[in-house]
Specification:
Length: 242
């Protein structure tokens, strides 16, 4: 199976091609340009460099959320447009599961954190049972940093495992992690600490095997919470009612 993977859910833009068990190519950029400027040129470059015809791709995987609302829309629109044009199915990979797959095979608990602003993070807790079986211990959620650290402490103590923290939320809230995390823990190195389309592809293969592929027309991003614009509109509505 040949799989095209996209991730523009956060600060990073990433595109990868997985052919069977071979990661043929991965293009990842963590820079200040917007995903609307980078994602399609990166996709064009990677298919040219690998001499891949998009019609050869069997399935398209995309980091579906949570994450940046604009980034998710760009990634999902790109995946959906390709899926509809090429008549290919889409695999919606939960963003935090994709990030966790950077540490495929580790015996530690994996806690990705994406900065969700307002002292909150998009996060979850994951584990690879026996080194290979992906386990969701805490489903991806949006909430205060202290809440997920409390869950890490409880699970780390119960299971006797250390916790690996990764994601763009870590440098933002590292002081809080250090203050409240009481179990053994560490931080991912730079090459494993952010979104990577290659990791999205690895998770997508397992989801495909579980029958989680969907028609492109059915695909939609996973937001978890309302956008700032929606929250502000609701607040204005409440003030008018008062």
């Amino acid at each position: 199976m040949k799989l095209l993977a996209l991730d523009s859910s956060g600060l990073v833009a990433s595109v990868a091609i997985l052919d069977g068990e071979t990661l043929v190519a991965e293009y990842t950029l963590n820079y200040k340009k917007t995903h609307s400027q980078t994602l399609l040129p990166m996709l064009d470059e990677i298919v040219k460099m690998t001499q891949t015809e998009l019609s050869e791709v069997d399935v398209i995987a995309v980091a579906a959320g949570p994450g940046s609302f604009t980034g998710l829309r760009i990634g999902s629109a790109t995946a959906k447009g390709l899926g509809l044009a090429l008549n290919k199915p889409i695999i919606s990979v939960p963003t935090l599961e994709g990030i966790a797959c950077n540490f495929y095979g580790t015996d530690a608990l994996i806690c990705p954190m994406m900065d969700a602003r307002r002292k909150q993070v998009y996060t979850g807790i994951y584990h690879f049972a026996g080194g290979t079986e992906f386990e969701e211990l805490v489903a991806q959620e949006a909430g205060p940093v202290e809440d997920i650290i409390k869950k890490c402490n409880e699970l780390g103590q119960k299971l006797g495992k250390q916790v690996i923290f990764l994601g763009d939320g870590v440098p933002v809230y590292k002081d809080i992690i250090e203050e409240f995390c009481t179990v053994e823990h560490s931080y991912a190195p730079a090459h494993l600490s952010r979104q990577r389309a290659g990791a999205v592809a690895i998770r997508a293969v397992r989801l495909y095997d579980e029958g989680k592929a969907e028609p492109a027309s059915d695909h939609a991003p996973i937001y978890l919470r309302k956008s700032q614009a929606e929250r502000e509109l609701e607040a204005k509505g409440k003030k008018l009612e008062e």
